[in-house]
Amino acid sequence: MLVDGPPGGYRLVSSEDGVLIEAHDAEGEMNALQTLRQLLGPGAFRAAGDKPQVIPACEVVDHPRFAWRGVMLDVARHFLPKREVLRWVELLSAHKLNVLHLHLTDDQGWRFEVKAYPKLTEVGSWRDDSRFGDRRSAGMKGRPHGGFYTQDDLREIVAYAAARHVTVVPEIDIPGHSQAAIAAYPELGLHGGGVWSDWGINERVLNTEQSTADFYKVVFDELMDVFPAEVIGLGGDEAPGHDGELVRQIARHILRGGRRPYGWDEVLDSGPLPAGTVVASWRGVEGGITAAREGHDVVMCPEEFVYLDYRQSDSPDEPIPVGTVTTLEDVYAWEPVPAELTGDEPGRVLGAQANIWTEHLDSARRVDYAAFPRLAAFAEVVWSPAEKDPGFVQRLREHHLPRLDALGVEYRPLNGPHPWQRLPGVPGFPR
């Protein structure tokens, strides 16, 4: 049954007569079912075993604050097998998050099968080594790393996510972070070289030849054939010395394909952007403010609040500590809409996403540790009204951490890492 209100909204009534759900739309129905699961308690989050049968009598009327409630998962630096991506879809759905942004390519690996250019995965999907810890002082692991998703794999992920009302947004990064592609097809680059085994900003970027733009138009055509999402990521970040014309060409190509280009906030520096471009503001909030004032839609993801690979405390026990300290409380206190936006400008903020870069997260267990429980705080920020609940941490401890336990999520305990979650002797680069 439909109810009035914003998309994704619902009304749930529990009484002696049973449970009544009224939803604005199909996504609202899914959100209501996730609320019902929460009311049933931690046992409802287990894959098997006795399920709870009793829930409290209540009425819940709710809807999301933002349309874009996302997570960027970097599967380029360290590949996550398909089963782990499917698991992440489940985790997003359980937290009423509805966008999974997959960072599919970078200097360190190409993860998307392109039938027109098979060497992108034959050559570009693996590297012969990986830095273990910060590049300024750490050694190497001494073993290859790689993997990629076939187009059938990705169609399966897309369908699995769609059934849970999660949109999968793909990203092919250009013109920087492209060494894996250049290793496969050297004519794309200004310099040669293999798939990169280090971290940081690589000075080797794509060249500005028209043939390179034509190459990537074919790549994006295959990407758009696999991913039905309205928004298609083209990167655009950290490309030293590049003039931006390739970004503009691919942005226009995406628009001609009936989609919307989505780039990191450096795309604002590449010249006038085509109408319809969506900007991800990661270098603070300034990019988002500029984009909104120029008439572009914005996804807020400033590194100081929602980069979940950043260290969670200043304790020496934090494994491979990088970035600034970003605590659970910091994430929860964040407000996604900059106060500087006025008039109609706040309406340009589609929502926000948390970014999980994986240079130093080389397994699903390490990703769990970095993401949770901070991702639970983020989920509440993008769902709920701007006012904060002083009881959030207590609710998390008493009610939600047991749900994560039931799901098998290896989160960071509130009082610091377990002994087996530490990596003593592996240097980071804290700021």
First-last Cα distance: 52 Å
DSSP, total strands: 17
The CATH architecture of the largest domain is Alpha-Beta Barrel
Number of domains: 2
Can you count the helices? Answer: 13
Q: Tell me about the biggest sheet? A: 8 strands, parallel, barrel
Task: Please provide a written account of the structure.
The protein has 431 residues and is an alpha/beta fold. The radius of gyration is 22 Å and the shape is globular. It has two domains: 1-63, Chitobiase, domain 2 (2-Layer Sandwich); 65-430, Alpha-Beta Barrel (TIM Barrel). It has an eight-stranded parallel β-barrel, surrounded by six helices. Strand 1 (10-15) and strand 2 (18-23) form a beta hairpin. The model has no long low-confidence stretch (mean pLDDT 96). The chain has helices at 26-40, 82-94, 119-122, 151-162, 179-184, 210-226, 245-256, 286-293, 303-306, 328-333, 364-371, 374-383, 392-407; strands spanning 10-15, 18-23, 58-62, 68-74, 99-103, 105-106, 109-110, 126-127, 145-146, 167-174, 231-235, 260-264, 278-281, 297-300, 322-323, 349-356, 429-430.
